[in-house]
Amino acid sequence: MGEFEPKIVGFFCNWCTSSAADLAGTSRLEYPANIRPIRVPCSGTVDPVYLLRALREGADGVMIGGCHPGDCHYITGNLKARRRVKIVKTILESLGLPHERVLLAWISGAEGAKFQRVVTEFTNKLKEMGPADLSKKWQ
Amino acid sequence: MSKGAWIKTKKDPNEAAGWFLAELRRKDIVKGVMAQKEMYPGQGAWHYLLKNPEDIEKTKVFIPFMGSSGATALSKLTKDKPLKDPVAMVLRPCEVRGVVELTKYKQIQLDNVIIISFDCVGTYERTTYLNNPTYLPEDEEKLRGACKRCKRFTPNFGDITLTYLGISEGIMAIPTSEKGEEILKSLGFELVEVPAEREKKLAELQEKREKAREEQFTEFKKEYSGMEGQLKFFGKCINCKNCMENCPICFCKECFFKSPSLTWDSEVYMDMLDNKGAVRMPEDPIFFQWGRLAHITPSCIGCGLCTEACPVGIDVGLIFSYVAEHVQGAFDYEAGRSLDESPILMEFKEKELEDLAM
Fold it and tell me: Is residue A4 part of a domain?
């Protein structure tokens, strides 16, 4: 059996991180194929239950990519996302569950290189953490 | 030192409170009174909106029974249209907190609502109460877990606070707003010093409650942390969603957990089977419960009605109170504390939580 390859579900804002992912590709910046991107209209549309559902269905990590504060196409969507992520992380942490498997990143449409860096770092961290036993037990 | 009206027309606290409420109606200060009343002895006391003073006199304000939330009742009354005439709402402190939260979510309109609350010693579990009905919470041991760990048993919002703690006979009605003071004066009451004994009793209770709270939370953390712990905690869940139905804070008309998003065709189930090797029926309770934690804990008021509603005996309220303390603490927010604080998911700041995102 080869090295453990974590599965990551990414919720990427249409206006920034999705473009950044494209930019990374067209700039031929290589990043791990572990990420499964889902394009959403805004990071603020991602309800905590989507993050939880991804973890339940077997994701080893979930990531939300949104615009930098102040840059949201809908003014405050990314700030909503930030509070929601804080809530989910606090819940997981208080219940003794690995909140590190949830990641929030601000990646603008111009930051192809940052996209590459964040995805690589997150993948490496999840590799270190090993497979999430959450979904195995969580039937 | 606070001042209040000493109501001694009846010796028994419930009768004195009933007399006082009836007086509000007799003097035409309100058009109706909502309070808990037994329809039939031994069937529990439910919220009734009452008109006749004779009926109002029979309400049991301090009864150690809470089957549903007065906050939900007030939301039903005023959500679509504010009250035209004044109505007195008798609410427990946790229900008052619910009213504060629901008002902020625009589910209650407070026009013409007179909130009368009281120092609440607690309520018994439903079955305990129904097996042995009593009208004052005298046995600390029988209290619900939520009441044993309640640290906000004195109302911090409303117009009048009733109390029998440290009062030798009858009750005292302490005004907590200008409107409350006006009402008491217009009824012809003279405001006198509240006996210091009340403060002493409240302080004793506070200490006891905070200790119990810490003990309960420590025990919960020890027993139910991690995935194994959570499976043990929610293993019995039948996914009936009664906890959700009974929750005063859960007000959405269209619920994600009842939406078609969670009904799948056979292919999806077979995919799940492939991925995980097993699919629980009725469907996974932990997803529902954690999802609800994410939705509700920002405003959870710790009333424990979810525990009361659970048919299989899961102490849902315990995990909600425990997680709510962390979630609300993270934002320096306390559900029901003040009408002026925006709920966690209604206020967004550009400069906050700056270490959270990469």
Answer: no
Residue A17 in domain: no
| Alpha-helical segments (H) within chain B | 13-26, 53-57, 70-78, 93-104, 126-131, 145-148, 178-186, 196-224, 226-234, 242-246, 266-276, 285-296, 305-309, 316-330
For residue B143, what is the DSSP state? Answer: B
Mean pLDDT of chain A, nearest integer: 92
Select from A94, A102, A126, A137 the residue whose CB has the most chain B CBs within 10 Å, as the one to mutate to test that interface: A94
- For B35, the domain range is 3-210
Query: Phi then psi for B169, rounded to 5 degrees?
Result: -145, 150
Is A139 part of any domain? no
Q: Among B291, B323, B356, select the one facing A86 at the smallest CB separation.
A: B356
Chain B closest CA to A4's CA: distance in Å? 16
- Rounded CA-CA distance B6/B191 in Å is 8
Domain final position from B185, B210, B235 = B210
User: In sequence order, which residues have a C-beta less than 8 Å from that of residue B276 and are 6 or more positions away?
Assistant: A57, A58, A135, A136, A139
Question: Does the pLDDT of residue B269 top 60, yes or no?
Answer: yes
- Helices and strands, number each (H, E), in chain B: 14, 8
| A46 inside domain | yes
- Check residue A138 and give its pLDDT: 64
A37 three-state secondary structure: strand
Number of domains in chain A: 1
Whether chain A has a CB inside 8 Å of the CB on B353: the answer is yes
- Residues B159-180 pLDDT 10s: 999 999 999 899 999 999 999 9
Decide if B322 touches A, using CB distance below 8 A.
yes
pLDDT, tens digit, 9 for 90 and up, residues B226-238: 988 999 999 999 9
Host domain of residue A48: 26-131
| Main-chain dihedrals φ then ψ at residue B136, nearest 5 degrees | -135, 140
Domain boundary among B170, B188, B210: B210
| Rounded-to-integer distance, Cα B189 and Cα B87, Å | 20
In tens, the pLDDT along A52-83 reads: 989 988 899 999 999 999 999 999 999 999 99
Pull the structure tokens for residue A7.
């599965």
- Whether residue B31 is found in the same domain as residue B150: yes
Domain check: are B331 and B290 in the same one?
A: yes
Out of B225, B278, B327, name the one closest to residue A139 (CB).
Answer: B278
Look up residue B105 and give its two tokens. 């979510």
| Residue B195 pLDDT greater than 80, yes or no | yes
Residue B333 lies in a domain: yes
